[in-house]
C-alpha cells in the first residue's frame, strides 16, 4: 500500500481549511441533499464530501457509510489532493497503490473510486481542501461525460462552501453590529436621558415667560433627538430580526382613543381637523402587541400631520376578518396634505427614503418611520400600502393580525400585580441606594427622590455599592436599589449577581433591584432579570412609572 504524500504547501493548506470552520461541524441539509443527488444520478452506493486535515479525512456529508472519518494515511482522497487532479481507480485490485489498502481488503471494500479535488482560494492562493468522491463495490468505468458531471458537482460543493462562509461572516458582522448598536444605544441615550431629566427638573422652577419658552424649545429638541435615536435603534433591531411581537391583552378601542386624543389636541392649535372612525361601538379586548400597534399608528399619524399644513387627518379602523379566535384589523390614515407622485410611491417604504433631499430640510425626520411601520406590520402578520396623488393627499392602509378574547376572558391581566397608587408617605421610611456612574442621570434621580422625601445614598459603580451595603448593614439597611447596568470597575449585572449569591450579605439576597438603563435592545430586559434584578426601566426615566415601581417593590422581596 502506498500512503498519500504530503503537499508542499501543507501548512498553508491546513490554515485555509481551518479558516472555514467546517471540520467537525453539524450536518447541513444543503450538503446532504447534494451528495444524495450525486448518489442517485451515478447510481452508486457511496458518495462523500471529504476534507483532509493533519491526520484524517473527515466527511462533511456522506451517503452509504456509517463512519464520519478515516485515517489520512489510508485515504484515497489524500492522493487526489497531492496530485491536484481528479483521481479515478476503476479496479483497486489492479492498482499497486491500493490493492492491499485496509479500505479495500476490509470495509467498505472499495473496488471503484473517483474523486475530484475541492478548491478554495485563501490569501490569494488556491488550496485543495479534500474531494467530492464516489465509491462502488464493483469494477466500473467512468466516461468523459460522467467525469465532467462529477467535476460540475464538485464546483457546486465549492460554491456551497463559499456561500456557507459568506453566511457565517454575515452572521458575525450582524453580531458585531448588534454589539455596536447596543453600546451606542447606551452611549447616546444616557446623556440624552440626563438632558431631558434636567430639563424636566428645570420646568418645575419658577420661570419667566421667555425662560419657559426657551425651556420648551430645548425640551422639544432633546426629545426629537431621542426619537431619532429610537428610530435608528428600532430599525436596526428589525433588520437584525431582534424584535418579537408580544402577546398582551389590551382594549383595542381605548388604544385608538388614546392615540387619537394625542393628535386631536394638536388640531386646536393648528388649522387641521382630526377624525376617528371605528366600525365597532364597544370595548374590544384582544391579544397582540399593543406597543407596536401604537407605534405604527403614531408613525403614520405623525407623517400625515407633518405633510398636512391645513385640512383634515382621519384615522379609520375596521375588522375585516373575524373568526372565533382571530381578528384581522384594517386601518387607514387619510390626510389632505401635499400627496405623493406616483413614480415615488414604489420606494416610499424603503429605509432613508424621503422622496427628495428637500424633504428632510422642510419637514424633518430620519426617513425610517415608514420603513419601521412596514416591518412592524409584517412582524404582526399584515402589510402596509399607500394610495396618493400629488397635491390631493394620501391614504396609508395597513392590516395586522390579532387574537380575539372571549367574553369570559375579557379581564385584563398583567404578569405582575398592579402598581399601587399610594401617596408619597409610603416611601418615606425606606432607604434607597442609587448606583449610576453618570453624574447627570444620578442627579436627576436624586432630585426626584428628594421631592418624595425618600432617604437615599448614591454610588458610582458596583464596588461602591458593595462597600455601602456593608457600611449601612448595622444601623440603616438599604431597602431598595436603583441600579444602572453599565458602570466602570464593576457593572450592574455583576453587582446584582453578587448580591443574589449572598456575597454582599445574606440579608440583602432578596432586596429589590430596579434596573435603570439606557440599553434598549431586545434581550436587555431578560439579561437584567437573569442577573438577578427585579424590574427594568429604560432611560429617560418616566418619574410616574418609577414612583409606581418603587411603591410596588417597597413592600416586597425579590423572589429567588
From TrEMBL:
InterPro entries in UniProt: CheY-like_superfamily, GAF, GAF-like_dom_sf, HATPase_C_sf, HATPase_dom, His_kinase_dom, HisK_dim/P_dom, HisK_dim/P_sf
A GO term, aspect molecular function: histidine phosphotransfer kinase activity
Provenance organism: Methylophaga sulfidovorans
Lineage: Bacteria, Pseudomonadati, Pseudomonadota, Gammaproteobacteria, Thiotrichales
PANTHER family: OSMOSENSING HISTIDINE PROTEIN KINASE SLN1, TWO-COMPONENT HISTIDINE PROTEIN KINASE
Protein name (database record): histidine kinase
Residues modified to 4-aspartylphosphate: 484
One GO cellular component term: plasma membrane
UniProt-listed PROSITE patterns: HIS_KIN (PS50109), RESPONSE_REGULATORY (PS50110)
Reaction(s) the record says it catalyses: ATP + protein L-histidine = ADP + protein N-phospho-L-histidine
Record keywords, A-Z: Kinase, Phosphoprotein, Transferase, Two-component regulatory system
Annotated SUPFAM superfamilies: ATPase domain of HSP90 chaperone/DNA topoisomerase II/histidine kinase, CheY-like, GAF domain-like, Homodimeric domain of signal transducing histidine kinase
Keyword Transferase assigned: yes
EC number of the protein: 2.7.13.3
Domain Response regulatory positions: 431-554
Domain Histidine kinase: 183-404
Amino acid at each position: 500500500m502506498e500512503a498519500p504524500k504530503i503537499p508542499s504547501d501543507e501548512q498553508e493548506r491546513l490554515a485555509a481549511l481551518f479558516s472555514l470552520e467546517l471540520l467537525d461541524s453539524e450536518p447541513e441539509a444543503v450538503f446532504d441533499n447534494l451528495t444524495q443527488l450525486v448518489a442517485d444520478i451515478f447510481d452508486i452506493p457511496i458518495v462523500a464530501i471529504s476534507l483532509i486535515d493533519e491526520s484524517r479525512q473527515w466527511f462533511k456529508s456522506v451517503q452509504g457509510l456509517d463512519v464520519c472519518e478515516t485515517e489520512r494515511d489510508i485515504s484515497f482522497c489524500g492522493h487526489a489532493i497531492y496530485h491536484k487532479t481528479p483521481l479515478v481507480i476503476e479496479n483497486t485490485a489492479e492498482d499497486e497503490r491500493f490493492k492491499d489498502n485496509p479500505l479495500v481488503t476490509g470495509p467498505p471494500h472499495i473496488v471503484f473510486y473517483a474523486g475530484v479535488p475541492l478548491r478554495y482560494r485563501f490569501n490569494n492562493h488556491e488550496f485543495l481542501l479534500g474531494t467530492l468522491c464516489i465509491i462502488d463495490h464493483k469494477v466500473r468505468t467512468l466516461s468523459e461525460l460522467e467525469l465532467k458531471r462529477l467535476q460540475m458537482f464538485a464546483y457546486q460543493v465549492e460554491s456551497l462552501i463559499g456561500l456557507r462562509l459568506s453566511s457565517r461572516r454575515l452572521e458575525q458582522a450582524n453580531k458585531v453590529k448588534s454589539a455596536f448598536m447596543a453600546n451606542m444605544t447606551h452611549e447616546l441615550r444616557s446623556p440624552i436621558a440626563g438632558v431631558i431629566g434636567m430639563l424636566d427638573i428645570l420646568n418645575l422652577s419658577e420661570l419667566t415667560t421667555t425662560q419657559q419658552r426657551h425651556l420648551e424649545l430645548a425640551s422639544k429638541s432633546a426629545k426629537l433627538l431621542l426619537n431619532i435615536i429610537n428610530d435608528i435603534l428600532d430599525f436596526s433591531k428589525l433588520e437584525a430580526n431582534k424584535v418579537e411581537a408580544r402577546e398582551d391583552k389590551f382594549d383595542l378601542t381605548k388604544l385608538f382613543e388614546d392615540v387619537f386624543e394625542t393628535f386631536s389636541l394638536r388640531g386646536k392649535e393648528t388649522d387641521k381637523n382630526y377624525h376617528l372612525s371605528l366600525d365597532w361601538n364597544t370595548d374590544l379586548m384582544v391579544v397582540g402587541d399593543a406597543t407596536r400597534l401604537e407605534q405604527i399608528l403614531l408613525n403614520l399619524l405623525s407623517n400625515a400631520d407633518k405633510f398636512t399644513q391645513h385640512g383634515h387627518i382621519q384615522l379609520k379602523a375596521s375588522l375585516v376578518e373575524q373568526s372565533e379566535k382571530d381578528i384581522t384589523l384594517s386601518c387607514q390614515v387619510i390626510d389632505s396634505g401635499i400627496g405623493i407622485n406616483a413614480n415615488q410611491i414604489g420606494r416610499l417604504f424603503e429605509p432613508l427614503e424621503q422622496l427628495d433631499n428637500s424633504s428632510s430640510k422642510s419637514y424633518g425626520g430620519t426617513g425610517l418611520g415608514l420603513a419601521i411601520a412596514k416591518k412592524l406590520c409584517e412582524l404582526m402578520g399584515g402589510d402596509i400600502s399607500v394610495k396618493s396623488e400629488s397635491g390631493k393627499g394620501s391614504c396609508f392602509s395597513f392590516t395586522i393580525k390579532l387574537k380575539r378574547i372571549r367574553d369570559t376572558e375579557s379581564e385584563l391581566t398583567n404578569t405582575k400585580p398592579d402598581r399601587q397608587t399610594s401617596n408619597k408617605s409610603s416611601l418615606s421610611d425606606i432607604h434607597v441606594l442609587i448606583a449610576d456612574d453618570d453624574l447627570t442621570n444620578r442627579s436627576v434621580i436624586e432630585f426626584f427622590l428628594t421631592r418624595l422625601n425618600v432617604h437615599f445614598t448614591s454610588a458610582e459603580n458596583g464596588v461602591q455599592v458593595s462597600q455601602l451595603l456593608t457600611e449601612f448593614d448595622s444601623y440603616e439597611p438599604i431597602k431598595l436599589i436603583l441600579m444602572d447596568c453599565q458602570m466602570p470597575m464593576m457593572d450592574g449585572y455583576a453587582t446584582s449577581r453578587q448580591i443574589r449569591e449572598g456575597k454582599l450579605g445574606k440579608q440583602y439576597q432578596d432586596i429589590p433591584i430596579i434596573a435603570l438603563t439606557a440599553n434598549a435592545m431586545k434581550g436587555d430586559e431578560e439579561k437584567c432579570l437573569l442577573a438577578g434584578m427585579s424590574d427594568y426601566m429604560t432611560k429617560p426615566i418616566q418619574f410616574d412609572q418609577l414612583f409606581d415601581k418603587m411603591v410596588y417593590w417597597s413592600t416586597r422581596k425579590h423572589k429567588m
